[in-house]
Amino acid sequence: MSWIKRNALSFWILVGLLAGVVAGVIAHDMIWGNISSDALSPEVRKAIKEFAQTQVKGFKLFSDIFLSLVKVIVAPLVFSLLLVGLVKTGNFKAMGRIGLKTMLYFTFATLIALSMGLIIVNLFEPGKALHVTEATEKIVAAKKFEATDFILHIFPKNIIDSMAHNDILPIIVFVLFFAAALSAIGEKGKIVLDFFDAIAHIMLKVTGYVMFFAPLAVFGAVAAVIGVHGLGILAGYVKLIACFFGGLGAFIFIVLPAICFFAKVEYWKLLSMIREPMLIAFGTSSSEAAMPKTINALERFGCPDRIIGFVLPLGYSFNLDGSIMYMTFATVSIAQAYGHDLTLGQQLTMMLMLLVTSKGLAGVPRASLVVIAGMLDAFGIPAEGLAIIIAVDWLLDMGRSATNVAGNAVATAVISRWEKVLGQPGRENTSA
User: Fold this and answer.
1) How many domains in the chain?
2) Taking 80 as the threshold, does the pLDDT of residue 65 lie above it?
3) How far is residue 131 from each of residues 81, 107, 329, 353, 424, measured CA to CA in Å?
4) Looking at residue 214, which CATH number applies to its domain?
5) Which residue among 116, 154, 215, 338 is least enclosed by CB atoms within 10 Å?
6) Buried b / exposed e across 251-286, counting CB within 10 Å, b at 16+?
7) Integer Cα distance of 306 and 308 in angstroms
8) What is the extent of the structural domain holding 48?
9) Separation between Cα atoms, residue 393 and residue 96, nearest integer Å
10) 270: pLDDT confidence band, cut at 50, 70 and 90?
11) CA pair distance 169, 258, nearest whole angstrom
12) From CA 125, how far away is CA 334, in angstroms rounded?
């Protein structure tokens, strides 16, 4: 019972998943099963099938409502978090080279995580195992890429219109200009910054409320998919989960050790110290829940409080490697499920978009879904595809949360090493 209380949302998502399987099997059997009894007339059998198909549409309504709720918060959440993050990041100049090194490292780690997500999803193609129906092929036909149209689209004619259609790139461009102007006017802009900071907190709270509907969305999505395709659809999830967790494992046991090797940080010692916070993050699906334990572990590892206090909190908004990897992995997997072949240019564009849009959003529980929803709209992939991954998102979230803890711990240790204060907290004041 205590585990259920600590992981209530994950528990109810699991319940929704199992209930969706049962409901889907029943609906599938009614539609495609043994409705051939001589005791039933053709008219009755037809009526039963029509009723079952109506119920499948009713199941899908749950996931459609959830998708609408997710999409409605994309624009204000991206706008407010990105604006506040950019303006506040401009203030790290007071920290001198520490701030610059931190942001350079975060950008480097983000590019690696995004690239790994793309490499894994293109190498193993887990989305193709999800077997989306051919009826959707017309919806997702790839649009011809025109460079001039793409460049013009980046610059918004009307920011309200861009936000209404969740056009991420125009929103990013507008926010960049807005943030630069807000920083330029100094104290006069503080009231505006405080306003959008409050908006950001409100939208984070709204995001939390929306996630309460996730169990119903899982139920509806799974029931509708299995109702049409049968239990065979679940076989695709095995490959999806295995590929993603394999990617996380490669990041934790290959990429992070390599980074630490070149930075001269004792990775395996650090990993043993952050084992407990990683387990907390895995069990709660929240990397932020593990922050106090992570701070303690980093102090014991020899990182100065000054470095920990600056790098770690910033990392929880700017450097969540597991969540960032998931964004490219999940988006391309959904495209593969619909038979939508993204070109190399489109995938590189997606990676650059996520390099910016992931900042500040990755730390929100399950906010990866919000970012992915924006990417689906941006690349003409059906938003309904988000429902495909909702069923297993709770499990993938556990793995990426633990990876986030490891990534931020390594970032703090690397910056401490670069500042030549790792293991020498007493010298931190003289090294600044």
Assistant:
1) 1
2) yes
3) 36, 35, 17, 28, 56
4) 1.10.3860
5) 154
6) bbeebbeebbeebebbbeebbebbeebbebbbbbbb
7) 6
8) 2-431
9) 39
10) very high
11) 33
12) 10
